[in-house]
Specification:
Chain lengths: 273, 331
């Protein structure tokens, strides 16, 4: 397909994606303007946008919103990185070793049903309010999806490909590099997506309880404390937009660079090379 | 006996005042540090907006907590040396961990900061007109306790209304949307709601009781560093004097402080709130005696064993020294 057509297709996809969102915003705006919804309870999108512009410092005021977004992103990404650092190796270990699974599974089964936010009051007493408590809570939210997806990915791989590589003289590292990691990659990326989404969702609740002076959760909570409805909605919209951006830009790019490229190619050639 | 006690107290005040005035004069050279817990309430916003400890050589490390409960947890864990709490929490603390704290002052008080609000177009002229109607309240709070006393004074009771328990931030919207006919709210929520234009204040609880939020200090820290606590109290008295003298400027200062976090509150609403909130720091006998019925109710409910002797927790001597220190520094 010529590049011009490909670009046109891409634009169509983006427009199709944005159209329902724009429709919803238009309906919302009209509902407020016609008095169907009260502006003091549900501000119009245009009011929220105007407030966001103020908070971004575009009208000459202090750019507080960037500070809150930065603080939240830093905490969520740090928690996610820690979850990957712990969850992936542990997932591989549990996926490969039945003995390790026997020992660790009961503890995981005990921890899994606990909502990460439930740890906040305990962590507040131990570490006090601040970044450490928030990052630990977000880590607890993110680590289990990463861990379980990795485990599932490794288990789904089966033993035959491993035997093939081993019988051809491949080392354990070869098995890991050429069989386990590529085979479990789709599950891994799904785990990353879920882990980041959980980290991001948990962040809001954790920041409401434990943030001292920054973060989107803190901003929403403060705005609620003083009935500043527009700022509350700015915070909520930011959370949704950033969450969506992370999923589409970060993980979408990662998927395109790995799974889509490799598996589409594999489909054409009959296997990975 | 009483005269001797008064005489001793007076002497202690004078000596303490002189010693602390000397300290204050030499203070800026070596700043002491004090970890203080504050909340997202207008008087605390004014306190953290300025360096009120500076004239006393006191560096206040204020930590803003999302709730009174979290602040008290931090206080009990020794993370902050000064915190504040309402009567319910204070009674529990006094009954269960009496060795942990002193009452050194009040953070805010006064029945006028509690109001019954209705929609602006409501035809209700008083509480009696709301009999049988839905009232939005936040149960278990000092505000609700005060409202119950008010009802008693009016010859009414909870049973005369349909009580709906809600969150404070949802009450204004509930009144506007006519989900409830009226709501019992506290400042600054009342003033902000009035400023937004859709509700009006029907009844003020002024004079019903004081319902103070007490300033609490870590007992061990206070015993070791009484002068630090006195300096903090003096700085707190200065902030209170500022609020009382100029509510408009205090409202603007608090609004600017809140705006630093990206939140917009009308300064006018905060000014109104400051005219209704009493920020006098002195703990009066009436305030202490208000704790007794709360404790008796909690005892009857099996929440505490005995009714504590609340007077034994109050350190009026520290307040008096702080008053002298604040006066001497101003003069």
């Amino acid at each position: 397909m010529p590049p011009g057509f490909r670009l046109f297709d891409r634009v169509i996809v983006v427009v199709q994606f944005l159209l329902p969102i724009l429709g919803l915003l238009l309906f919302w705006e009209l509902a407020v303007r016609t008095g169907l919804a009260q502006a003091s309870i549900l501000p119009a999108p245009s009011t929220i946008l105007a407030r966001a512009v103020e908070l971004l410092g575009l009208t000459g005021e202090r750019a507080v919103l960037f500070g809150h977004i930065g603080a939240s992103l830093k905490r969520a990404l740090l928690a996610f990185a820690l979850a990957v650092a712990v969850g992936v190796p542990l997932g591989f270990l549990l996926g490969l070793s039945r003995e390790a699974q026997l020992w660790v599974s009961p503890i995981l089964s005990l921890m899994l049903p606990l909502p990460a936010v439930a740890w906040t009051p305990i962590l507040l007493v131990v570490f006090g309010p601040g970044d450490l408590t928030i990052v630990i809570v977000c880590f607890l939210g993110a680590v289990f999806p990463v861990l379980y997806s990795t485990m599932q990915g490794v288990r789904a791989c089966g033993t035959q490909p491993v035997w093939v590589v081993r019988s051809m003289g491949g080392s354990r590292l070869d098995v890991l590099r050429r069989v386990l990691i590529p085979a479990s990659l789709p599950a891994l990326i799904t785990g990353f997506k879920l882990g980041m989404a959980h980290s991001w969702r948990t962040l809001v609740a954790a920041e409401m309880l434990a943030a001292l002076s920054s973060g989107l959760g803190y901003m929403i909570f403060s705005a609620r404390s003083y009935m500043d409805v527009s700022t509350m909605f700015v915070g909520v919209v930011c959370l949704a937009a950033i969450g969506m951006a992370i999923e589409h830009l970060l993980f979408g790019t990662l998927e395109r660079a790995t799974i889509h490229r490799w598996y589409v190619r594999d489909a054409g050639t009959g296997g990975r090379q | 006996m009483r005269l001797v006690k008064d005489g001793l107290r007076q002497t202690r005040r004078v000596l303490g005042g002189l010693a602390l005035a000397g300290l204050a004069a030499a203070a800026p050279a070596a700043a002491e540090t004090l970890a203080v817990g504050v909340q997202q309430v207008p008087p605390d916003e004014v306190y953290i907006a300025r360096d009120w400890g500076e004239p006393y050589g006191l560096e206040v490390e204020a930590t803003q907590f999302s709730s009174g409960g979290d602040m008290l947890k931090a206080f009990l864990a020794g993370r902050v040396m000064v915190a504040n709490g309402g009567s319910g929490r204070l009674v529990t603390l006094a009954a269960q961990q009496p060795e942990t704290f002193y009452i050194i002052g009040t953070q805010q008080s006064g029945g006028d900061r509690y109001s019954l609000v209705v929609r602006k177009d409501s035809e209700a002229g008083g509480i009696a007109d709301l009999k049988g109607k839905k009232l939005g309240v936040v149960t278990g709070t000092g505000t609700y306790g005060t409202f119950l006393v008010y009802l008693q004074e009016q010859g009414l009771s909870e049973a005369d209304f349909q009580i709906v328990n809600m969150k404070i931030d949802d009450l204004r919207a509930a009144v506007e949307q006519q989900l409830v006919d009226a709501a019992v709210m506290w400042e600054p929520f009342v003033a902000i709601a009035e400023e937004m234009g859709n509700v009006k204040r029907l009844v003020s609880m002024k004079g019903v009781n004081e319902s103070p939020n007490f300033l609490l200090a870590n007992r061990a820290f206070t015993d070791e560093n009484p002068e630090t606590i006195v300096k903090f109290l003096a700085s707190s008295i200065d902030a209170a004097d500022f609020i009382e003298a100029d509510p408009a400027e205090a409202g603007q200062l608090a609004a600017d402080q809140i705006a630093k976090g990206g939140v917009e509150v009308p300064a006018k609403a905060l000014e109104t709130a400051f005219t209704r909130i009493s920020v006098k720091r002195e703990v009066t006998d009436d305030m202490v005696s208000e704790l007794v019925p709360v404790a008796e109710a909690m005892q009857a409910a099996g929440k505490i064993g005995e009714v504590p002797d609340f007077g034994s927790f109050v350190r009026r001597d520290l307040y008096e020294q702080a008053l002298d220190l604040a006066g001497s520094t101003t003069n």
